[in-house]
Structures are given as structure tokens and as C-alpha cells.
Write a structure and sequence with these properties.
Length: 102
């Protein structure tokens, strides 16, 4: 199940993730739009803030694909989560289970 979202992605000013926004995410990855062509297979640290009360989940993602968006200077990027650093896969699973019942 992919959850739609339109949120800014925080990144270093002038860096690859400056002016980036997430468009969807799931237990296994996320999609975002960027002004930059992100290299395929690039590993990136990602912090997911799933709730107001809990600690964020930290994962390592790997860029699986990058597609130019027609008639724009932006790119649609797909990332898969490869490692959970803090938190756990079960927290992601629980988050998506709770979203189904909302």
C-alpha cells in the first residue's frame, strides 16, 4: 500500500535534496520529485517522522529509478529502503496498518 503525501524534504541548501518534496511512501520505499537528477543506486539516509509522539524511524534508501518529468526541469525519483537504522520495520508495518483503519 502506497500512501500519498506532498511534503517537503529537508536537505542541505544547494545540495541534491534542496527543493525536493515527497509524493508517496510505503513500507518499502518512497517517491519524490527533485530539481536534480539523483544518481541511480545512490544510498541516502532518510528520517521518517511517523507520529507526533514517537521517535522518527531512520532508514537507508537506495535510488532505484529516476525519470524526467515531461515539460519540466524536475525528476521523479523512486527509492527503496535497504536498512532500518533506528526504529524497526515493525513500526513501519504498524503505521500502515493503523492508516488502513482511519
Amino acid at each position: 500500500m502506497r500512501k500519498l503525501c506532498v511534503v517537503p524534504v529537508e536537505g542541505k541548501e544547494g545540495g541534491l535534496f534542496d527543493h525536493t518534496r515527497a509524493v508517496d511512501f510505503s513500507r518499502g520505499g518512497l517517491g519524490f520529485i527533485s530539481e536534480h537528477r539523483i544518481p541511480v543506486n545512490k544510498k541516502i539516509p532518510i528520517e521518517l517522522d511517523l507520529s507526533d509522539e514517537g521517535e522518527p524511524v531512520f532508514v537507508i534508501g537506495r535510488v532505484k529509478w529516476v525519470h524526467p518529468i515531461p515539460d519540466s526541469s524536475h525528476f521523479r525519483v523512486g527509492v527503496t529502503f535497504t536498512d532500518v537504522l533506528r526504529g524497526s520495520k515493525s513500526r513501519l508495518d504498524r503505521y500502515f496498518k493503523e492508516q488502513k483503519t482511519d
